[in-house]
Specification:
Number of domains: 3
Radius of gyration: 36 Å
Bound molecules: adenosine-5'-triphosphate
Oligomer: single chain
Strand content: 5-15%
CATH topology of the largest domain: ABC transporter transmembrane region fold
CATH class of the largest domain: Mainly Alpha
Strand order of the largest sheet: 6-7-8-3-9-10
Structural class: alpha/beta
Length: about 600
């Protein structure tokens, strides 16, 4: 029923045409059986009457009818397939759109990291890619059943009329019982298959690692290829074994039952029909009719290639899509329900007020954190690995929501704005920022994507940002300038170094500021820049972003010391804050870390001079 509700979305005219064709495809085989039996019944009289007799012309008419029914069935086959394919494609396109809309419904990313959601996404994506087992194929498969059921009912009816009244009901009960038993087995099997989604996801990940260039360097340098192949084989077998076991358990037994019951019932019916013929109660044509119609009626008990697996697997994929929609809608209700407008904020201050946060199922990362970020000033955050610096920024960008406490902009809780609206205020370049395999222009203009609708302005702004980020000369050297795709996988594409990519990302952030973002976050912005470039960048950066609220996370003290204020994060709390000089004078954690790093640099310099 679930899938049937979806079917009309393929378009009424298409669905109506497909249903009509299916009805014809259900009637024609029974017409063929009737006509061929009539042919057999008329042969003795026609032979006796000779050419030109009434019996002969009767025989000819029935032969023509049988031939017409036969060719009708053959002609309808490609039409059934074509209409089925159209329905499948249309429905799959719609389901694909729904899947994409669902995964983008929330401004937060927590739901996208939920393993349950990821299993459902993997399952739905897999099934949509196969086409044979997709929700669309399930819709088309349901329609294909019309001809099968119609044929069964008509053929059973024929046996009742032509032989004994109970033959038809007996055939129907036997065939449908076997069919529903088989379908039940199929649905349990599909559930078993679905439950292996996580195992299949792991084996798919290992296979992708073997095939894609991302891990090619490490796999070779560390000699991981044999290990990975073994691991992939094990993972693939772990995913396959439960499916194979279920297949043996659920299908072989019912299939044998089907064959036995079909044989027994057909044996009784056909022996009865043969005896009736011998006794002169049923003609030769009647015997052939009962024989063919009984076989046709029982056929529905077996496997129906164009429908069975597709409907079960497609339905499961559709359930996954519905589950994703429910999970994403629930997430979006939390992140997008605010109605406020954050335009122009913050004018004075951003505040973390007793903010605590833990990733789902994980230990606390932030504990009652209080932090004040003055608007229009620069703030640096330092702390050891895992202290929660990036997490703090993710909360500020509303990629996650605090477990308790609140983040406010000029005193207004930022949850009163839709997350997607608030995110337009924030330009963040994360440590693991995305290397879009797209032209330089897009990579930079994505800071304010609406700019791409005005190519001339976009080019001007992009060039200016590249200049400021110190990446103009890198781009000038590229074969197609701003048009160069940043990946060797495309003709005329180029691969950039880590530091060059970082400059591109910084330019992206500057474009975002130009586009109206008022909070600029740079997480380890200079980690890939050499020391001289880093110093030059920061001097320029502070000038460029004057008046913008900027947050910089860095392990390099040469970077953070230039910020207006510095906070030290430890165990999910701010443990020290002040200017570089104040924190040194405090002689606490910051001073200790600074001295450690300074000592290392001094040693390196001394060694370098020796
Ligand atoms: N998506 C995530 N899901 C679950 N746990 C996470 C996630 N991201 C980070 N963590 C955990 O949260 C803690 C803080 O991580 P975070 O990235 O905020 O630290 P950080 O201070 O930025 O560290 P680094 O200096 O190494 O970048 C770590 O223990 C990490 O394992």
């Amino acid at each position: 029923m679930r899938i049937l509700h979806l079917v009309p979305d393929a378009g009424w005219s298409l669905v109506t045409s497909a249903v009509l064709v299916q009805i014809a495809a259900g009637i024609l085989p029974v017409a063929f059986i009737l006509a061929t039996s009539a042919v057999v019944a008329r042969v003795p009289d026609a032979v006796a009457g000779g050419l030109g007799s009434a019996a002969w012309s009767d025989l000819r008419t029935n032969l023509i009818l049988a031939a017409a029914a036969f060719f009708g069935v053959q002609l309808l086959l490609p039409v059934q397939e074509l209409l089925g394919n159209l329905i499948r494609r249309r429905l799959d396109d719609l389901v694909r759109d729904r899947l994409m809309a669902a995964t983008q419904a929330s401004g937060g990313v927590a739901v996208m990291e939920d393993p349950e959601l990821l299993d459902h996404v993997a399952d739905a994506k897999d099934r949509l890619r196969t086409e044979m087992w997709s929700p669309g194929a399930a819709g088309a498969g349901q329609i294909a059943l019309i001809s099968r059921y119609l044929q069964t009912v008509l053929a059973a009816g024929v046996t009742s009329v032509a032989f004994v009244w109970w033959a038809g009901p007996a055939l129907l009960v036997a065939a449908l019982t076997i069919r529903f038993g088989y379908r039940l087995g199929l649905s349990v099997f599909t559930e078993v298959f679905r439950s292996t989604a996580r195992l299949r996801r792991r084996s798919e990940y290992l296979r992708t690692m073997l095939l894609q260039p991302a891990a090619a360097k490490e796999l070779r340098v560390f000699g991981l290829l044999p290990w990975l192949k073994q691991e992939y084989t094990t993972a693939a077998m772990d995913a396959a074994h439960p499916v194979w076991r279920a297949r043996r358990r659920l299908f072989y037994g019912p299939y044998i039952l089907y064959v036995l019951v079909a044989f027994a019932l057909l044996g009784v019916l056909l022996t009865g029909a043969a005896q009736a013929t011998a006794a002169g109660l049923l003609g030769l044509g009647g015997l052939i009719l009962v024989f063919q119609a009984s076989l046709a009626a029982m056929r529905i008990g077996g496997f129906i290639a164009e429908s069975d697996v597709a409907t079960e697997q497609g339905l499961n994929a559709y359930r996954s899509v519905e589950r994703i929609e429910r999970m994403s809608e629930a997430a979006a209700r939390t992140t997008e329900s605010g109605r406020g407008d954050p335009a122009g904020l913050p004018r004075t201050v951003l505040r973390f007020d007793k903010v605590s946060f833990a990733y789902p199922g994980g230990p606390p990362v932030l504990n009652d954190l209080d932090l004040t970020i003055e608007a229009g000033r620069s703030l640096a955050i330092v702390g050891l690995n895992g202290a929660g610096k990036t997490t703090l920024v993710k909360l500020l960008a509303r990629l996650y929501e605090p477990t308790s406490g609140a983040i406010t902009a000029d005193g207004v809780d930022i949850r009163t704005f839709p997350a997607t609206a608030w995110q337009r205020r924030v330009a963040a370049i994360f440590q693991d920022f995305t290397h879009f395999e797209l032209p330089v222009r897009d990579n930079v203009a994505f800071g304010a994507v609406e700019m791409l609708t005005e190519p001339e302005r976009a080019d001007k702004v992009v060039r200016a940002a590249l200049e400021k980020a110190g990446a103009a000369d890198v781009v000038d050297r590229l074969p197609r300038g701003l048009e160069t795709p940043l990946s060797r996988r495309y003709a005329g594409g180029a691969e950039l170094s880590g530091g060059q990519w970082q400059r591109i990302a910084i330019a992206r952030a500057l474009v975002a500021v130009e586009g109206g973002a008022s909070i600029l976050v740079l997480d380890e912005p200079t980690a890939n820049l050499d020391v001289r470039s880093e110093v030059a960048f920061f001097e320029r950066f502070l000038d460029l972003t004057r008046g913008v609220t900027s947050l910089v996370i860095s392990h390099r003290f040469s970077t953070v010391r230039r910020a207006d204020r510095i906070v030290v994060l430890e165990h999910g709390r701010v443990v020290e804050e002040g200017t570089h000089e104040e924190l040194l004078a405090l002689d606490g954690r910051y001073a200790e870390l600074f001295r450690l790093q300074a000592a290392r640099f001094t040693e390196e310099e001394v060694e370098g001079c020796e």
